[in-house]
Amino acid sequence: MATGHPVVNVSPNNPVFDLPIYVARDEGLFERAGIEVRFQAKYSQRNSSDKEAFSRLKESLFEQGKADVYNLCEWAGIDRSERSSRGAQVLALRPAVGAQAILSFDAAIQEPRDLAGVAVGINDRTGSHYTTLQSLEGVLAREDIVVEHLGIPENRYQALKEGRSRAVAVMEPFISLGLKEGAHIVAASFYRGGEVVAPELTEEQRKVYYAAENEAVDLINADFYKYAHHVAAHAKGALKPNELLKAFAGNDTHETRIDIPVLPNTQDMRTLAAQVDALLDRQCIWGYLIDGHGLYTWGRDMAEARRHLDAFEFLLGCELELMKLAPRDAGRHA
Q1: Which of 101, 61, 28 has the alpha carbon at shortest distance from 196?
Q2: With respect to CATH, is domain 98-191 assigned 3.40.190.10?
Q3: What confidence tens digit (pLDDT) does each residue in 13-31 have?
Q4: CA 34, 333, 41, 98 torsion: positive or negative?
């Protein structure tokens, strides 16, 4: 519905990255800021396999002048702004911290070094592409790093499930879906990204747009699961919000929280064993941390233990990324 306010047209990205826009729209923050924000297409309308970046929905809408802003990873932001015929500018950090993980169902692929010569499914010149290179370049020679363009995340995950690809790089909700369905994480990385903005968007419009998104980020950080359905919906019913917690054996609800005990670092194994036994007597736990040492977890078999380890490491990684940011800056524009 037209409001009479100045209009900012947005080109859609993955719900993980557009979540602050959804929340600012749904909570009326844009309207309160005096602007109307419109998505110029649905995320589901993407072409599933375009390799050339400017043929994709997000970039093409912007280049045609139908959208004023879109977000993308920092490496792609440099590429798109350099090649834009419209004079695109990267003017702000994206108000979301994203994760990309290389997943595999293949028991022979456990560590990044196992990917030598193995094609990793990516979407060319996007976060999945650049983070794969970043994750592997420290352990493999460049000639041993192989990537294969498979298109959008749904395509990549489907290729993994069907065995057409031994490893793929995906973001949420497919990381959680993969862990739920038996995949394991080979490598994971977190990144921020930027906002590509049209030169025609005024400074005042940018200012109020970013301010509304930042306010939305505060709401998300205060109660993420109120809005998590936007992200989980991308899995088309295969995953519910907070369902990664079901990766822990015997936990059949996502409406809970997992506490990870931290035990003092001691060389006295009898004392440590007594502390762990006492914890197990009091509550159901799937693992614990030893201060200054590391994480311990277990399972009924190797596959279950690995699933617990992957879930713990991914969730702890997410918490660490939030802790790196000042409380009010977690995911905000800068």
Answers
A1: 61
A2: yes
A3: 999 999 999 999 999 999 9
A4: negative
